[in-house]
Amino acid sequence: MAEYIAPLQRLIEEFRRLPGVGAKTAARYAFATLNLSDEEAARFADAINGVKRDVFKCPVCFGLSASAEGCEICKNPSRDPSVICVVESPKDVMVMERVRGYRGLYHVLGGSLSPLDNITPDDLTVKELVSRIETGEVGEIIIATNPTPSGDTTAAYLARILEPYGVTVSRLAYGIPVGGDIEYADEVTLYRAMEGRRSYN
Amino acid sequence: MAEYIAPLQRLIEEFRRLPGVGAKTAARYAFATLNLSDEEAARFADAINGVKRDVFKCPVCFGLSASAEGCEICKNPSRDPSVICVVESPKDVMVMERVRGYRGLYHVLGGSLSPLDNITPDDLTVKELVSRIETGEVGEIIIATNPTPSGDTTAAYLARILEPYGVTVSRLAYGIPVGGDIEYADEVTLYRAMEGRRSYN
User: Fold this and answer.
1) What per-residue confidence (pLDDT) applies to A178?
2) Domain boundaries along the sequence of chain B
3) Which of A32, A48, A63, B95 has the highest CB neighbour count under 10 A?
4) What is the CATH code for B6-53?
5) Residue A1 has pLDDT above 50, yes or no
6) Looking at CA atoms only, how far is residue A166 from chain B in angstroms?
7) How far apart are alpha carbons A63 and A56 in whole angstroms?
8) Are A28 and B19 in contact (CB < 8 Å)?
9) Buried (b) or exposed (e) across B10-42, using 16+ Cβ within 10 A?
10) What is the pLDDT of residue B1?
11) B159 touches chain A (CB under 8 A)
């Protein structure tokens, strides 16, 4: 006999797919879901479908967007199109946005270079970043990859291939704890890192 | 500007309703959901709807059931109908089922007596428990309410009102850590508690 009845067991297994969720936590979530009203559960389920249905990739910066035409940041005329902050993941855009002072645009690489995992520049949006720079509108690139070995490799690679374009290429200062993830950095640390960015050229 | 785009923010708020989930964990879950394939997300959403659609309350024991007619335990002819284990919540039935030795039936009260929260015997399935005993089929009642003040009150109340029916009424031994929740007790402790149950009469 299964420990839980089938529909519950099924939901528990779905919750277990979430990061850091084990069997007991998943069971706790499943019972909490069971205790929601029908309307609340339907809303929860719809929010999951909604995130797949209503979230698009911005065709310019590859960040998350509420429409297929482009994201709010790229479309905002008060943002400075001459500065592009390059990040690894869409989540990092939102993290960087918490630093109120930044008014430039973004570019989401979609990962970082990792020869061991077979991730090459072709797997990232490097070509698209170069195209944006080739328009001549961009004067500065701020690299905000994670301070990890693969983030470092990516930053060094970008600095090298962007050299011929005559744009200022800088990287976030090591205010971010080394080996960490920018997602968990606090706003002050992020601001310091932005202020103390070092130029590659 | 909201920190996240609307569909993500909405999902984050749904995840925050789960027990023990704060803003960062909810955001982590939402991004993990976003990274699921369309099929996986649809399956996740459907599992949530499924738990509301396909889980019923057993009309006999008030435990969870995969059909409206009655649960697998009540319908199982090899279970001993002369013993009823009384628990607070449907989840507790599943916890007790891990104790392989128990072959009797269950009765889910749907909570515990708590005058401060205005929970009286009428809010629980006490009347239905008495009806089951009145059939004369039941010889023993094992009270497995939580070892908390309200669980203790409920156990004492049940022992008193069941006295006239001439059934043996016992309660799980205090092998369960006092002030805890039976949900988190390990199988061995639960088994000891079942073995060392003390009779009220």
Assistant:
1) 61
2) 6-53, 62-199
3) A48
4) 1.10.8.420
5) no
6) 33
7) 8
8) yes
9) bbbebbeebeebeeebbbbbbbebbebeeeebe
10) 39
11) no
